[in-house]
Amino acid sequence: MAFICRFAPSPTGPLHIGGVRTALFNWLLAKKNKGKFYLRIEDTDKERSKEEFKKQIIESLDWIGIKHDDKEYIQSKNINKHKEIAHELLKKDFAYKCYCSEEEIKEQKEKCKKQGIPYVYNRKWRDPKDLPIPKNIQPVIRFKSKISGNSIVKDLVQGEINIANSIIEDFVILRQDGSPTYQLSAVVDDHLMKITHVIRGDDHKINTFKQKQIYEALKWDIPQFAHIPLIHSEKGSKLSKRDMASTIGDYIKKGIISDALRNYLLRLGWAHKDKEIFTLKESIELFDLKGVGKSPSKLDLTRILSLNEYYIKHMDEKKLFELFKVFSKKFRKKVESSKEKSILKSMSFLKNKAKTLDDIYCNSEYILQDDIKISPEDSKLLDSTSKNIIKDFLFQFEKMSNVNKENLEKTFKGLIDKHKTNFKGVGQPLRIVLTGSKFGPGIYDIILSLSKDEVIKRLS
RNA sequence: GGUCCCAUCGUCUAACGGUUAGGACAGGUGGUUUUCAAUCACCUAAUCGGGGUUCGAUUCCCCGUGGGACCGCCA
Length: 460
Hints:
Blueprint: E1 4-7, H1 17-32, E2 36-41, H2 51-64, E3 73-74, H3 79-91, E4 95-98, H4 102-115, E5 140-143, E6 150-155, E7 159-164, E8 172-174, H5 182-192, E9 197-201, H6 205-218, E10 224-228, E11 231-232, H7 248-254, H8 258-267, H9 280-286, E12 297-298, H10 301-314, H11 317-331, H12 337-350, H13 357-368, H14 376-381, H15 384-399, H16 405-418, H17 423-435, H18 443-449, H19 452-459
Parallel strand pairs: 1-2, 2-3, 9-10, 11-12
Antiparallel strand pairs: 4-5, 5-8, 6-7
Helix pairs in contact: 1-9, 3-5, 5-6, 8-10, 11-12, 11-13, 12-13, 15-16, 15-17, 16-17
This protein binds one RNA strand through α4, β7, α5, α6 and β12.
């Protein structure tokens, strides 16, 4: 069976992680079924749609590895077709012109609110009989919704949803200015694009009942629907732009890598037995709508971090290094070409200490910086004994013909015996002088990652 | 307020109607360790409440409670 799906965001704000997950689920299903995945930019709200958001959407999807088939569809380009269909519905008596002014509608709503009853458009113009047509009002076109009975949608995630038709009002399909609304445009485009599966956030659930009626009026095939629960912020509220970590960019900035976030998003609201780590290939093979839960899930940054740590540890060092370079350039400092070799060599131990690319940066700062600054607090630790140890080490290090772990170990042992101290007594002062910090990679790793000259320079 | 949906450790989630209710993250304890980490071992921690149905209910039904979504000439 053909499997054609789409992700249809509106470029009226930055795409957040919930949208990315929706796109991911669509894409995964398309890949699994050897179908198509399209991206449709729903830019019919001219006021709020912005080119920068469109760009942000495409870049976000691209970063996480979601590639859409064909060029992205731009909904506004199809507006004439939408209008045409609206008029077809009008001609076939599935829709009608409504001459209510906006004030009139507003009044009705307020009245309902006062009385505490739910507002539904009163269908004044559905069957106008001899109502005089106001000359000064441009009509909107409303769809004739079913008035009685019930409708059932078989949702691939939610199961059967049953509602009374009376709560679905005669919704507007063409505005006063003649432009189509979302309900109409979405249906027409989905039909034209031959979409077979509509997978979207469950905030669209009610729309399904409106859209289904348009399909039926036009005698078009109705796609399958799947409404996935929304993602909540860590506080449990709806994800909003104000949440610091809500867009892909927020995570890139933290040094999260693409595979980790993809894996996280996959497992948020979906599970396959006890499996936690999914390669891209595995996610395509194993993903299904049956495994999608029905309740909303909360974002958990520590989980993302832990997944990121896993992916960093298991990543090819060269690849990781490339990601690191891009990250540093963008958010920290460009890695100078003279330091590249040394950093790359050090990836093997740097990655074992890192949860993010930023952690790698912090742990490699001693390589990146030429001037090592020692804090007053750390200076206190450098007493005369420590200074002697450093001097002794430097003396032997300069003579060392072959700098390797074995020789360093020998030297350290000798110093420990001579100064009647322990490993820490030798390691810590050297670490402080070499890196400007008490914390960091193993002392042998540090020494081996720097050139012999550099070590000598720093110890002198 | 109306309509619809949902409900398992703090979090993400497993569990043909029969399990000591499992895993992962976080947290805790201990081992290892030159620091911070990492790592290894172990531990704490959940079926929202109340009724049914059933020999047996996390699982099915009803009620309550709690949470969410929607209620635009936004999408």
